[in-house]
Design goal:
Shape: rod-shaped
Number of helices: 13
Number of strands: 7
Structural class: alpha+beta
Order of helices and strands: HEHEEHHEEEEHHHHHHHHH
Helix content: 55-70%
Length: about 400
């Protein structure tokens, strides 16, 4: 459906872009208006800057070749959105989404086309007989309607939070069985598998943490949230042109005073609204902040499970290491005992004349007995000392 719409709308390439085609790289964008109609644009960064009146330093946040953290940046007339694979510029009238043909971006384009059109689009139809009441109802409904930029922002936040939660679920489904298998059998294959899963978990945790930090930073600052009310800014400035008479003159004191008073009152009302009335956006951000917080808690739980598994494996390895130390100690003690026998045999094997060599009927028996008792005593002393120092188990 999207491909057909893009093909029908065609590719709009400005003349300025064609002139700078050799000097500036073209990027694919899709423009979505209030009705969700999409138009593919091939524009360079200078054309985008002129189209939405944005600075180069803000547009640089959307450059995929540069590494920038997740950002929701409010400017005078636009919202710069850099969340994972979603790189968009939101105004009060349109959404510019970068790389619309990317596989990760296509579902977001479809969702924007479905949800950008307001639900109360035909509110001006019924009740034509009551002009004054109709005007009040229309103004009330327009105030209650969700602003265009917030509908686009909600789609982007929902897509990012859902994507991160899906990645977390897939990681959990792979990690828990691998960890259980590692606890039952420690092998190089299982260790390498868990190592890769832990690396993937660390990268995913960093991605989730960046989005969470950005939402938390917005929620902590009411001024930043007020900067995202693009429709309110547009409504606050548009009556200025239509309110005063076209024949304003500074030579007319009455008109000047009246215009000053009206401008002051409108400015004060707008200022109070922008400073205090951010509950709508705050509730929207809090909902997705709680969702991304839940995803981060899942990753934290998984990390704790990995740490517990590592501790369990280290305990097992320490146990095996202690068993090897115990075996080595027993072998060393046996070697000492055998060395005692070798020492006695070497002494008796010397070709030295001794008086007891002439009559040695019972000498061999007593030598063997005494040597065995001495070897056993040495072995018991070594093992007792090792147990006292905790080198072997009791």
């Amino acid at each position: 459906m999207i491909a057909l719409e893009m093909a029908q709308n065609g590719s709009l390439v400005s003349s300025e872009t064609q002139v700078n085609k050799k000097t500036a790289a073209l990027r694919s964008w899709i423009s979505l208006n209030h009705d969700g109609q999409g138009t593919v644009l091939d524009l360079d960064k200078y054309a985008i800057m002129r189209r939405v009146n944005i600075h180069a330093r803000d547009l640089r946040l959307l450059d995929p070749l540069l590494s920038y953290p997740s950002t929701i940046l409010g400017r005078e007339k636009v919202i710069v959105l850099n969340l994972e694979h979603i790189k968009a510029i939101i105004t009060a009238e349109e959404v510019l989404l970068r790389d619309p043909f990317d596989d990760n971006v296509l579902p977001i384009v479809e969702e924007l086309q479905r949800r950008l059109p307001p639900a109360s689009g035909n509110i001006n139809g019924p009740g034509e007989e009551e002009d004054s009441g109709l005007q009040k109802d229309v103004e009330t409904s327009e105030d209650d309607d969700f602003p265009f930029e917030f509908r686009a922002l909600e789609v982007a936040l929902e897509a990012i939070c859902t994507s991160l939660d899906t990645c977390t679920g897939e990681l959990e489904s792979d990690a828990y069985p691998a960890l259980d298998e590692l606890t039952s059998k420690i092998s190089s294959r299982n260790l390498d598998r868990v190592r890769k899963l832990k690396s993937a978990m660390t990268r995913l945790t960093n991605r989730v943490q960046k989005v969470r930090d950005e939402l938390e930073q917005l929620l902590d600052d009411d001024d930043d949230m007020a900067d995202l009310y693009l429709s309110r800014k547009l409504v606050g400035t548009s009556p200025m042109s239509g309110f005063g008479a076209p024949n304003w003159s500074f030579a007319s004191p009455s008109i000047t005073v009246g215009s000053k008073v009206s401008r002051t009152s409108r400015a004060s009302v707008t200022t109070v609204q922008e400073e205090n009335d951010v509950e709508e956006l705050e509730m929207l951000l809090e909902a997705y902040f709680m969702q991304i917080e839940g995803t981060l808690n899942k990753l934290t739980t998984l990390r704790e499970y990995i740490d517990d598994t590592e501790d369990y494996i280290n305990i097992q390895l320490d146990n095996h290491r202690n068993q090897l130390i115990q075996l080595e100690l027993f072998l060393s003690s046996g070697t000492v005992c055998v060395s005692i026998y070798s020492l006695v045999a070497a002494i008796f094997g010397m070709n030295i004349p001794y008086t007891w060599n002439e009559n040695h009927k019972h000498m061999f028996k007593w030598v063997v007995i005494m040597t065995g008792i001495a070897s056993a005593a040495i072995f018991v002393c070594i093992v007792s000392y090792a147990r006292h120092k905790g080198l072997v188990g009791s």
